[in-house]
UniProtKB/TrEMBL annotation:
InterPro entries: DUF7134, HATPase_C_sf, HATPase_dom, Sensor_HK_TwoCompSys, Sig_transdc_His_kin_sub3_dim/P. It comes from Kribbella yunnanensis. This is histidine kinase. Its EC number is 2.7.13.3. The keyword Kinase applies.
């Protein structure tokens, strides 16, 4: 059973390092022992060779090296430079191996200390034996404890990485849910707008039918109104179908019909916000014009969201201004505050309200830019064209 760290793919650079490390030990300690004693040198090489796989198979490496050490003890072979492989294998299993097997390896190391003391220092003074036992035991335990500490830190880093990945997934999922919810809300509003347009067409058609004989001009005017209203409603439906493409169809609540606000409803909205304690200046520049229902609703919602964000984040004492600029080609909506109240700093990540602004503006072929101002405060600028990029009416 391997540990969590060995379950992760080992980089090619780490594999090359393990090969060079084991090769260096074989060349230095292994061949040095082989020069001193042929049989003991071979055992030393056998304890150093498996270290190539010390990170990928730490349990098997420790078992193999320990088995060779037992053969060395049974054969009465003196300690060799290759015995350093025992320390390296113990460190490897404490860092990369299974936790339970790592503790068993510590016990095996302690038993090895007793066996080595009884064999290689059996003729020494008891004080020397105790000294060697304590020194070897401290070495074994110290190596194992250092490996455990490194394992703990490495696992902590792995957990942080996994949490970061999960947090990113959660942000993506929340963003998608926010977009889906906003699209559903827009679909319901478009439903009301289109239903209103169809109601006008029906009324005009009935009126034109009755007036056809007595007043042909009135009938023509009714037919023209029907054509204009139908084209506008069809354009809105096409935009909505493009926006909600690949989205699941959701049932609309027939019990919630309501007139949708537009730019004419902004004074009432601003008065309500002023009643809530926010200082707001409202001005209109350019020549006001009648706007399609969808475009007016988009402008209203953007102003509403901008004022809501100011109430939430600008802090007490903040001053806000709302400007509608009726240009030749587009309507520009600006919501800005000075943030004098020292409110909460704007987040570095877009919230659901900002996502909704972008979605609404994109339906009308417009854009929204929002962010902190250089001198303090926050600013939202929306540019909403009167005509779609393909030349159609909104």
């Amino acid at each position: 059973m391997t540990g969590l760290l060995t379950a992760r793919p080992l980089p090619a650079r780490s594999k090359a390092f393990d090969l060079l490390f084991a090769g260096a030990l074989v060349v230095s300690a292994g061949f040095l022992g082989l020069a001193q004693a042929r049989w003991g040198g071979l055992l030393g090489l056998a304890m150093l060779g498996p270290l190539i796989w010390r990170r990928t198979h730490p349990e098997l490496v420790f078992f193999a090296v320990s088995s060779v050490a037992v053969l060395q003890w049974l054969g009465g072979v003196d300690l060799q430079p290759g015995n350093v492989g025992l320390i390296v294998a113990l460190y490897a299993i404490s860092v990369y191996g299974d936790v339970r097997l790592s503790r068993i390896a510590l016990g095996v190391g302690g038993l090895g200390v007793l066996m080595a003391t009884s064999r290689y220092w059996s003729n020494s003074d008891w004080r020397q034996q105790v000294t060697m036992m304590v020194a070897l035991g401290a070495l074994v335990f110290g190596v194992w404890a250092f490996g455990e500490r490194r394992r703990t830190r490495a696992l902590y880093v792995v957990q942080l990485e996994e949490r970061a990945v999960q947090a990113e997934r959660d942000r993506d999922r929340e963003s998608k849910l926010a977009v889906s919810a906003e699209r559903t809300r827009i679909a319901r509003e478009i439903h009301d707008v289109v239903a209103h347009g169809l109601s006008i067409m029906i009324v005009q058609a009935d009126g034109g039918l009755y007036a056809a004989d007595q007043s042909p001009e009135a009938a023509k005017k009714a037919l023209a109104t029907i054509g204009d209203t139908g084209r506008a409603s069809l354009t809105e439906m096409r935009k909505m179908l493009g926006l909600l493409k690949q989205e699941e169809q959701r049932e609309l609540d027939p019990n919630q019909p309501r007139p949708q606000p537009g730019v004419s409803s902004l004074p009432e909205l601003i008065d309500n916000v002023r009643d809530a304690g926010l200082s707001v200046d409202y001005q209109v520049t350019g020549a006001p014009r009648d706007l399609p229902a969808l475009l007016g609703l988009t402008a209203y919602r953007i102003v509403q969201e901008g004022l809501t964000n100011t109430l939430k984040h600008a802090g007490p004492g903040a001053h806000t201004s709302v400007t509608l600029d009726f240009g030749r080609e587009m309507l520009t909506v600006v919501v800005t505050d000075d943030g004098r109240g020292g409110g909460v700093a704007p987040s570095t990540e877009p919230g659901h309200g900002l996502v909704g602004m972008h979605q609404r503006a994109s339906v009308s072929g417009g854009t929204v830019n929002a962010g902190p101002k250089a001198g303090g405060g926050y600013e939202v600028i929306a540019k909403l064209p009167y005509h779609l990029p393909n030349g159609g009416q909104q």
